[in-house]
# Entry
Amino acid sequence: MSAQANAGARVLSGRVALVTGGGRGIGFAIARALYDAGAAVVVADNGTDIAGNGADPTVARDAAKALGNNALPFEESVASPSAARAAVELATRQFGGLDILVNNAAILRDGFVFKYEPADWEAVIRNNLSAAFYAINAATPLLRDQARAERGGKPYRWGRIVNIVSTAGFYGNFGQAAYASAKAGLFGLTRVTAMDMARSLVTCNAVAPFAHTRVTETIQPANPAQAAYKERALKIDPAPVGELVRRLCTPEGDEITGQLLGVRGRELFVFSQPRPVARSVDGDIAELKRDFTPLQTDLEAFNTDPVV
# Structure
């Protein structure tokens, strides 16, 4: 590799990243992509199963070890303000700062709204939405201070926040009230964070991934279209998700903020965001019907062959 090419490969050298849910699947693919680009990485993962039960500290430890000497594990759940602060403090204490926050940690507890347990709702919202807010709340004061200190150069361009969402959050899916609500809320948090941090030149974007994960493994198809979706999804490697997050953290992502992006193998998507598409000055609902959104799940909407 030439010196110029090697410098490009290490474009995140000097930066520090915190990746929640970084021990497996998409989270580890993101941690790997950032690490290979030169970033120091804190892998935050308490090693629960997909429903958030149990804990296994070796998940974070093994992931950090697999990355290399410039990676550290954080073995607590970040679904509390104190743990989120502790993860940020670990990055700062060991690596001198924090430049990149990726909120990827999530659990899944499905059930139809008419028989869903409120305790499951609260667990999913806490782990999938509140935890991301706790991490953002802990990291953004530091990012603002670093902007004022011009960490990494003038103007400050190192601050990045990426929230991993899901198409379930804006399409919906059977039995995923809590999961979809959390992911929809996470996109709302993305927009507000992008606005609140704009003066500090810190970007915040949302990425909806399509890849083989523990979540796709648990899909219980409700119809043949969803069965076909699952079969296709299980063939998609999570590495391109890590590559997109890496690109958002490089100078290529300096002007990209508040966006909802998707990645499926070699395909990249930018999603529209809810805005009025029609209006009736007479309050006539019938006049608006032609612009109504069909009741289609995300699995059915993306039931096409991926480009891998």
About this structure: The longest strand covers residues 203-210. Residues 11-301 form a domain with the Rossmann fold fold (CATH 3.40.50.720). The longest helix spans residues 118-149. The two ends are 26 Å apart (CA to CA).
